[in-house]
Amino acid sequence: MRPSGRKPDELRPVRLTRHYTCHAEGSVLVEFGNTKVLCTASVEERVPPWLRNKGRGWVTAEYGMLPRATGSRNDREAARGKQQGRTIEIQRLIGRALRAAVDLEALGERRVVLDCDVLQADGGTRTAAITGSYVALVDACRLLVKQGQIRRSPLMGQIAAISVGIYNGTPVLDLDYAEDSEAETDMNVVMNEARGFIEVQGTAEGHAFRRDEMNAMMELAEHGVAQLIEIQQAALAD
Amino acid sequence: MRPSGRKPDELRPVRLTRHYTCHAEGSVLVEFGNTKVLCTASVEERVPPWLRNKGRGWVTAEYGMLPRATGSRNDREAARGKQQGRTIEIQRLIGRALRAAVDLEALGERRVVLDCDVLQADGGTRTAAITGSYVALVDACRLLVKQGQIRRSPLMGQIAAISVGIYNGTPVLDLDYAEDSEAETDMNVVMNEARGFIEVQGTAEGHAFRRDEMNAMMELAEHGVAQLIEIQQAALAD
Amino acid sequence: MRPSGRKPDELRPVRLTRHYTCHAEGSVLVEFGNTKVLCTASVEERVPPWLRNKGRGWVTAEYGMLPRATGSRNDREAARGKQQGRTIEIQRLIGRALRAAVDLEALGERRVVLDCDVLQADGGTRTAAITGSYVALVDACRLLVKQGQIRRSPLMGQIAAISVGIYNGTPVLDLDYAEDSEAETDMNVVMNEARGFIEVQGTAEGHAFRRDEMNAMMELAEHGVAQLIEIQQAALAD
Amino acid sequence: MRPSGRKPDELRPVRLTRHYTCHAEGSVLVEFGNTKVLCTASVEERVPPWLRNKGRGWVTAEYGMLPRATGSRNDREAARGKQQGRTIEIQRLIGRALRAAVDLEALGERRVVLDCDVLQADGGTRTAAITGSYVALVDACRLLVKQGQIRRSPLMGQIAAISVGIYNGTPVLDLDYAEDSEAETDMNVVMNEARGFIEVQGTAEGHAFRRDEMNAMMELAEHGVAQLIEIQQAALAD
Amino acid sequence: MRPSGRKPDELRPVRLTRHYTCHAEGSVLVEFGNTKVLCTASVEERVPPWLRNKGRGWVTAEYGMLPRATGSRNDREAARGKQQGRTIEIQRLIGRALRAAVDLEALGERRVVLDCDVLQADGGTRTAAITGSYVALVDACRLLVKQGQIRRSPLMGQIAAISVGIYNGTPVLDLDYAEDSEAETDMNVVMNEARGFIEVQGTAEGHAFRRDEMNAMMELAEHGVAQLIEIQQAALAD
Amino acid sequence: MRPSGRKPDELRPVRLTRHYTCHAEGSVLVEFGNTKVLCTASVEERVPPWLRNKGRGWVTAEYGMLPRATGSRNDREAARGKQQGRTIEIQRLIGRALRAAVDLEALGERRVVLDCDVLQADGGTRTAAITGSYVALVDACRLLVKQGQIRRSPLMGQIAAISVGIYNGTPVLDLDYAEDSEAETDMNVVMNEARGFIEVQGTAEGHAFRRDEMNAMMELAEHGVAQLIEIQQAALAD
C-alpha cells in the first residue's frame, strides 16, 4: 500500500500551466501532486565562447530550490556562494535531456536557458522539471518561428521524464517524498515520444536491484511517460 | 499622466495570499500589480553563534530574484557564487524593517528567516517583500503561540512599506517598472501602524530633490502605507 | 548632554588634507574628530564593458576598513574572500552620491574609482568618505583639465554628507561612535551646495521616529552640510 | 570494427597494483589500458557533523584529474577555486557506489575517504575509479581489523563497474576515449558480485536508445563486471 | 649612480611613528623614504583551533596594499574575493619573521595579529612591514605586561629586515621602486639584534648571481639592519 | 647521525623517469628517495592577456599534492575552493626558477605550464619539482624544435634545486621529512649549471643561523646541485 493510496502504476495529478509568468519566452508551472516547479525558457542572442562562429546554438539548464520548498529550510545557495553537488547533478541531467530534443544547428547561434525553480517539493522535482521544461522550450521555439528568427522549429522530438522505484518490495511509479525517502531503489527515466530512452539513472538505496526489477521499473516508466507525453500535447494544444 | 493610467496617489491592486506553499511556518504570495514575491517565514530552534545563551532570538531576511523574473535574464546568483550588491542591500533592509516589529526576548532563543523570492518583477519588489513578510511573520508567530512554544506573540507593531518617487515632475505612489526606470527620485518608506517611520531611503536619480518634494513624497507614503496596513489586517482576519 | 560635550548642532573638528599620498590623481585624508578616512580618486582610461563605445564615463566607489580601525579587530575582507554586506551597502551609497555630481558625458570614456579606506573609525565613516571623496574627485578632474584630456570639468555640483540622529531623545548632528551605538535613530544625508538632497537614509534603531523628529533631523543636516560645503571650498582654494 | 581492434565484448587489459603509495591505509593504481587512476583509502577517526554520536561511520569519495591527464591541458580546479560539474557528478557516483558495499554501523564512528586521482585518461575513468577504490577500501578495512579497531570487516559485498555503449551501431564493452567521444550511447554500470545492480547511468549522446539496445548493453556489462570481480579477487589474494 | 643619488650602502630616511592610530594595542607607521606602511598589533584572547589547550600562543601577520598605494591602481583584493599570490607570500614571510622573536609559551593562550597595510609604496614594503611590526609587537607586549596579563615580555630578540640587491652591477642597500624594477638581483634579509639570520630570500631577476655577489649583499644587509636595530631602539625609548 | 643513516653531504637516490604519462609534451616522474613528484610540461599556443602581441612567451608552474600524499590526509584544495598559502608560495618559486632558464622571446608567443603534482611526499617536494620540471621542459622544447615551431631551443641554462639545513647542529644535504620536521634551519637553493644562484630561501625554524652556518649550507647545496645537474644530463641523454 502506497502512503498516498495510489496504485503502483498511478501517476499523481499532473498539471502544466503555460504563461505562468510574463517575461520569459516560455514559462510553465508544472505540478506533480504537491511538487511545484516553475520552468522558464529564456532565449539569448549569443552562445558560450567555445561555440562562437560555429553556426550552432546551445540549450542549457539551471536548477534551484527555494530555501523553504522543503520540510525544513535549506541554506540559500546564493548566500553560501556555492551550488550543492545535488543541484549540479540535477541541472546537468535536465540540460542533457532537453538538448536531446533539439537540432542545435537549426536553432542558430543563440542560447536557450531553462531555469527550473522548485517552489514546493514533494519528490520527483528533477523529472517534473524536465517534463515542464519541454513545454516551456516549445513555447520559446514557437515564438522564435513566429518572430521570423528561425524558419522552422529546431525541436526534433518530445521529451518527458518520470521517476520509478521499488517501495516496500513493489515497483511503483512517480514516487512522492514519503516513498522516495524510504525507497529501496530510485530510478529516473527520460524518454521521447517514440519510447526511445534519453537517460536512465537508477540507484540502489538499500540492496542491489535485480534485472527483473529493473525490467519492471522500465515498464512502469514507459507507461508513465506515455501519459505525460499526452498531457504535454494537451497543454500545448490550448 | 502615469504609464498605467493610475492617479498619482493610487496604489496598484495589492493581493496577499496566505498559505501559498505548504511547508513553511508562514508563506505568503504578495502581489502589487505584476510584481509577485513569495515570502516565507521559517522558524529554527537555534540562534546565530553571537547570540547563544543570551535569552534572545533573531529575525533575518534573504532576498532573491528568479533569473527570469525580469524582462531579460539575470545570471543566477547561486551559479555565479555571489550575491549582487543590490541583493545584499535589499535583504539587509528587509531584515532591519521586520526586526523593528519584534520583541526579540519574547521570541526566545530561536531564529526566524524571511525568504523573499521574486517570481515576477515590475518595480517595488523590496517594499512588496516587506509588506508580505510581515504577514508571513504573523502566521509563524501565531503558530508558535498555538503550539505553546511561546506564551504571547513577540510582535510589537505592524510593518508595511511602499515606494514613492517623482515621475515627470510629479510625486507619485507605488512606482511600477516603467516609472521606476524613468523616475527622477525614488524613495522607499517603511512605516508602522502608528504612522511611525522605521526606515526612509530616498535617492535622487536625476537631479537633487527639494525639501518640499520630500514632504510631498512622505505624505504619499503615509497615505499608501495606511491602506497597506488595512489590507494586511483584512488578510490576517480571514 | 553629549558624551563629547558638544552642542546638539555642533560638528566635530573637520579636517581635509589634500595630496595625502603621492600616486593618486586625487588623494585626501578626511578627519571628522577621530574618524580618519583616506579617499583617493584614480582615473582609468577605460570604462566597464556595458559602457563601451557609448561616449560616457563612469564614477564608482570602493570602501574598506583596515582590520584594526575599530576597537576590536575585524576580519580582513580580502582574507575572508568576501566583502561584508555593510561594506557593499556603503560603497554603493558613496558611488551613487558622487555620480550625482558628475556629467558622465563630459567625463568622456574613462572611469574614476574613489577608494575610501578607513584608517581609524569613530562613527560617521560613510559620510566622511563622501565628503572627502568629493575633494579628491575635484583634484582628479582639475588634473584632467590641466593635462588637456578634457576641456572643462565634468563636475556639476558640490557634494557633502553628514549623519544626524536622535540620541537620548534629542536630535543631534554628526554622531560619534559613543552616540551612534546608543542612538534611537540614525540618518545619513547627502546634499549638494544648493541645499538639494541627493540621498537620505534613515533607520529607526530603537522605536519608530515621527515626522517632526525627521524634520528636526533634516534641519540639522542642512546646517551641517552647509558648513562642510564651506570647509571643502576652503580646502580646495589652497 | 573498434579503433583498438578489440572484440565488442572485450575488456582492455586491467591491472590493479596494491600499495602503490606508502602513506594511505589503502592505495591502489588501477589501469584499464591507458587509463590510470590512483585510488587511496584514508581512514579518519571522526565523522561529518550530521553523523556525530549516531554510532555509524561514513564512506565518501573525491575525484580529480591531473591537469595534463588528457590530450589538452585542463585548468587545475584548485586554482580555479571550483570543482567542475562533471567532477562533482563523478565523485558523488563513486561515493554512492562504495557505500552500497559497506555496513556503516559495523564501520563505527569513523570516515573513509576514497581519493581517486586520474594520472592518465583514456576513457572510463569513473568506472575504473570505482573498481580500484573497492580494492583500496578492502585494504583499509583489513588494516582496521588487523589493528583491532573493529572486530570484523564492514564490507558486505564486492563492487566493480564498467562502461558500455553503442559505437557505430554496435553495443561494445569498456569504451576507450576514441570510442567514447564518438559513441551514440554511453552507460556506466555498477554491480556487485551477486550480479545485483548498484547504479545504472545511461545517456543517449546521439539518438535515443531502444529497450533491446539497453538489454544488450546490460548483458555486456554483466559479462564485464564478472571478469572485474575475478581480477579484484586475484589482486586481493596476493 | 643610484636614481635617488644615495650611496650604495645608504638607507633611505627611516621613520617610526608609534601610536599612529588609537585602537590597536600596538600601532606604528613605518616610513622608508616614500614607502609608508601602517603596522598594527592586535591582541586576541583566543588561539587558532589547532593550538587550543596547549598552553601556547600564536603570532600571525596579514598584509594588504591600498588599491592606490602604487603608481597605477590595483584591484581591491576584498572585491576580487581573493588575495594575490604575492600578498600571501609576503604575509607568510612577515609572520614567520616575527614569530622567530617570540616565546609562544610565555605569550600564553592568546593570538597577536600583525596587520601591515601599505598606504604608499616605493619599494621595500615587506621589509619595512617587518621592521615596523616589531615595534608594534613590543608595544602590544608591554601593554600585556602592564595590564598584568603576563608577567614578563615574551619577546626573545629584536627583529628588523632590509632589502639588498644588485643594481647596474653594483650591490646596493634598501632599493626603492626605481631600482627594484630594474635590479638584476633582489634579496630580502631578516636578522636579529645579534646578527643572526632569520630569513634570507634572494632571487635572480636577470642573470644568476655569484657567491661573491651574495657575500657582498649579505654585508650590506648586516650594515643596514644594524642601523635599523638602533632606530627601533630609539623609537621604543621615547 | 641522520635518521636515514646518510652522511651529511649525501643525496637520497634520485631517479628521473621521462615519458611517464603519454599526453604531455614533457612528462617526468622525479623521485628523491620516497618523494615522488609528477612534472608535466604543457605547451599552449597562447599567452596571458598582459603578454599578447609582445612577441614573447611565458613559463609558469602549478603545484599540487594529492590528498593522501602525506602521512595524514589533507583536504583537497579543489574541494575547499582555495589553494593554501604554502601551495601558492611553492608554485611561484617553481615558476620563477624555470623562467630563469628560458629566453622568452625565443620561445615565441606560447605558454608552457609546468604542473608539479606530488604523488608521495617525504620532504623536499619543491626542490624535486624544480629538478624534474627542468627535464620536462627540455623535452617540451625539443618537441617544439622537432616540429619546426621554433628554430632553436629557448633554454639558456640548466636548472636544479636542493634543500639544505641544519639538523641536530650539523649542516646536512637533502632533508627528508623526518629531518625537515626537526630541522633548526631549512634552506632551498636553486642553481644553474654554472654554479650561479637563481634563488636562495633560508628560514630559521629554531634559532637564528650564523654567517658561517649559511656558508656551510651553501657549500653543501653547490655539491648537491652539481650531482643533480649530472643526473639530469644522464636522463636527457637516453
TrEMBL record, chains A, B, C, D, E, F:
This is Ribonuclease PH. Homohexameric ring arranged as a trimer of dimers. GO terms for biological process: rRNA 3'-end processing; rRNA catabolic process; tRNA processing. Keywords: Nucleotidyltransferase, RNA-binding, rRNA processing, Transferase, tRNA processing, tRNA-binding. CDD domains: RNase_PH_bact (cd11362). Phosphorolytic 3'-5' exoribonuclease that plays an important role in tRNA 3'-end maturation. Removes nucleotide residues following the 3'-CCA terminus of tRNAs; can also add nucleotides to the ends of RNA molecules by using nucleoside diphosphates as substrates, but this may not be physiologically important. Probably plays a role in initiation of 16S rRNA degradation (leading to ribosome degradation) during starvation. It comes from the Bacteria. SUPFAM superfamilies: Ribonuclease PH domain 2-like, Ribosomal protein S5 domain 2-like. Its EC number is 2.7.7.56. PROSITE patterns: RIBONUCLEASE_PH. It catalyses: tRNA(n+1) + phosphate = tRNA(n) + a ribonucleoside 5'-diphosphate. InterPro entries: ExoRNase_PH_dom1 (IPR001247), ExoRNase_PH_dom2 (IPR015847), ExoRNase_PH_dom2_sf (IPR036345), PNPase/RNase_PH_dom_sf (IPR027408), Ribosomal_Su5_D2-typ_SF (IPR020568), RNase_PH (IPR050080), RNase_PH_bac-type (IPR002381), RNase_PH_CS (IPR018336). Gene3D superfamilies: GHMP Kinase, N-terminal domain. It comes from Alkalispirillum mobile. Belongs to the RNase PH family. The keyword Ribonucleoprotein does not apply. The keyword Nuclease does not apply.
